[in-house]
Amino acid sequence: MNSQWKAVIGVDIIRSGGTDLNQYYYAIAILQEGNIKKTEEGKLSHLIRLLWEYRPALLAVDNIYELGGTKENLKKVLKFIPPETEIVQVTLDESRFQSIKEIAYKVGLPIEKGKLNPFRTAIFLAILASEGYGTKLSLFEKRVKIIVTKGRSGYAGGSRSDKYQRSMRAAVMQMVRKIKEELDKRKIDYDLTIRRSKGGVERALFVVYADRKDLTGIVRNIRGYDVVVRIKPVINTKFLKLIEGSKPERKYLIVGYDPGIVAGLAAIDLDMNPVLIVSGRELDRGTAVSLLTDVGIPVVVATDKNPPPDMVKKLAAMLNAQLFTPPKSLSTSEKESLVNEYARKFNLEIRNTHERDALAAALKAYSIFREKMEKLNAKVRSIGIKVKDMQKYKIKLLNNEPLENIIEDIINDVLLSSRRDEVSSKSVTTLLIKNKQLEQSNLEERIKELESKIEHLTAEREKLKQRIRELEQEYNYLKSELNIISTELSKDVLRERKVSELIQRLRNVNSYAIKLEKELNNLKESLHDTIQLIEKYFRGDYILVRKISLNLASIRDSEESLGKIRKGEIVFLDISEGNQGLLATNFREFVSFCANMSLKVILPENSVSTRVADSLVNKHYVPALMTQKYWYIGERLVLIPRSTISHLDEISKRLKKLREESTPKLTEEILEKLVSEYREERTALLRDITQQNNASTSLK
User: Fold this and answer.
1) Among 4, 201, 280, 427, which residue's Cβ finds the most Cβ atoms within 10 Å?
2) Pairing relationship of beta strands 322-324 and 296-302 according to DSSP bridges
3) Which residues are within 8 A (CB) of 284 and not within 5 positions of it... i.e. 6 or more apart?
4) Distances (CA, A) of 172 to 169, 180, 283
5) Count of domains observed in the chain
6) Range of the domain at 210
7) How far apart are CA 286 and CA 318, in angstroms?
8) Which stretch of DSSP H or E encloses residue 695?
């Protein structure tokens, strides 16, 4: 790796302080853009300040223990290292130590005779680390703990103490929800354990499976009045083992896990020997994986609850192990029975219920497979095989492989073994003969198994009878206790109901206040729009016109309120798709009214008004125009832009011209023709009258 474009800091110790971190003194070299920018000396606090000032890509050392001297001090110092800074031990290469002089000689750096002084060493460390020499030490696991707690004690005294407590718990709960939403939104894996109390959350722990730098901008340390958020990267203790001895022999493990704020973890091997029993606060998945992989290979992860907790399922997935869930959740008596007998056998001290529950889960899982394992051991002994390591064959049992196939695998492994303990040819012949005799002895073994099972069930029945008697006594005791407690709780229940009622009332008031605020904002917007319209009307940009409809009754109402409609007046015809019925019945009468009064009509733009405007203009020569810009002023007036009125006037002029052109002119020839036709009609009429009179006279 070439880090010439990022800062690299080399550090060598000048004076050790033993267990006192304040007494450590260092030589410090700062490399930037491929050149040594400066060298300084100072205490550990000075070094840490420079690390946060320059935020280097690498911190180069020749021995990690120079940053504190002891493992405990080293853990304290590592917490102050910036998350983006990686530590490189230059003298460590593929688990082999080399001196600084040896590496510098290979690179071609100028080497002085004798021992290098601390400043020269710090410079060499920075240069060598920037060129990719040494081993990067993983300071932190890909795991971060986020702890959310109350910001103060909350004990205000008097009757207000409960109120303070509830407000802080509510603040903690709100912060937990906020962090959870941010992690869920970014699909970051995490575990969450919560300690609840009245009114909210007392304490919460997130175990986030990500690098600390990945959480930058998502969550930060907070020390507020009501809530405190602390971010704690988890130090990777495994990098210390790079310098320490090798790991002990690893065994296959059955693991029991009881998650929670205080968690329990237990592991037994496949021969039922105890391997690990621990408990503690914040014993999360990552810590559990680290502890278990140090002592063995987990193959089964068990719980005492049905359904299993999510954290147990996730732990099994992380370990790639089989998940065991009991048919039903284990009772307290069953767990005590399993654990007490086991603890006496191995002289174990079970310190709390969390360790008890974890161990009980592991023992319950083992009991399910125990019968198969005992069968396997018995058949191997009956054949006469001595197997040094039965663990790998028991794993096959846990994976539900048939017992017959596993025995054949054992025989094949023994036959093909080339080690010193390989069986003789005579033993092999005996093995084959005994293998053929297995089927004949199956019946006898089955009888023995059933007899043993009957004895076991009989003993179990007696234990259950005794337990029933104990439970009856416990039930009677708890019943009497319940009666006492219920009377004490009645007052608390009433108080809680009153609190809930007040909270609901507060929510209703808040909801109504929000509604009123929205209405107020709407009124403010409406008032603002109205003021703007009044200003435009005052400037002459808009004019007021009368609003009418197709119904002549509405026209009469308008005239009663605003006065008679004047000849040639501009009116706004309020028409929409909803009143097409009026259009069919009243349109002819409306057109006649408009023609008589020489009205000019403005319509709102929609599908119905398009047809109406076309009919008014083209068939009836009534000036009409559609517009999108109009504002209702009350129920009887409408504001129209003056530009729209101008367009309407132009339409009126064009229609007037068209009417004049279409009306025939009364010429002298036409007048003479009309008089002549009148005279002819008059003469014919008189002739008919005379003939009728003559006829009546002759009849007389």
Assistant:
1) 201
2) parallel
3) 143, 145, 191, 205, 207, 259, 263, 311
4) 5, 12, 22
5) 3
6) 142-239
7) 9
8) helix 668-699
- Encoded tokens for 619: 């068939």
pLDDT in tens, 45-59: 999 999 999 999 999
Q: Say whether pLDDT at 268 is over 90.
A: yes
Residues 653-682, mean pLDDT to the nearest whole number: 68
In a domain, 294, yes or no: no
For residue 205, the domain's CATH number is 3.30.70
Of the candidates 340, 262, 338, which has an alpha carbon nearest to the alpha carbon of residue 302?
338
Looking at this protein, which amino acid is placed at residue 505?
A: R
Last residue within a domain, chosen from 221, 239, 257: 239
Q: Give Cβ neighbours of residue 623 (< 8 Å, ≥ 6 apart).
A: 600, 601, 616, 617, 648, 651, 652, 655
- Establish if 505 belongs to a structural domain: no
Q: What is the mean pLDDT of residues 422-438?
A: 43
CA distance 635 to 198: 57
pLDDT at residue 320 greater than cutoff 80: yes
Q: Indicate if 21 and 71 belong to the same structural domain.
A: yes
pTM greater than 0.70? no
**Residue appearing with tokens 């009243």:** 586
Domain endpoint, select from 137, 162, 179: 137
- Regarding whether 102 and 152 lie in a shared domain, the answer is no
Residue type, 62: D
When pLDDT is averaged across residues 232-240 and rounded to a whole number, the result is: 68
Asked, for residue 279, whether it belongs to a domain, the answer is no
Question: Is 636 among the domain residues?
Answer: yes
Q: What is the DSSP string of 391-441?
A: HHHHHHHHTT--HHHHHHHHHHHHHH--STTPPPHHHHHHHHHHHHTHHHH
Percent helix, strand and coil across the chain, each rounded to 5? 55, 20, 25
123 and 17 in a common domain? yes
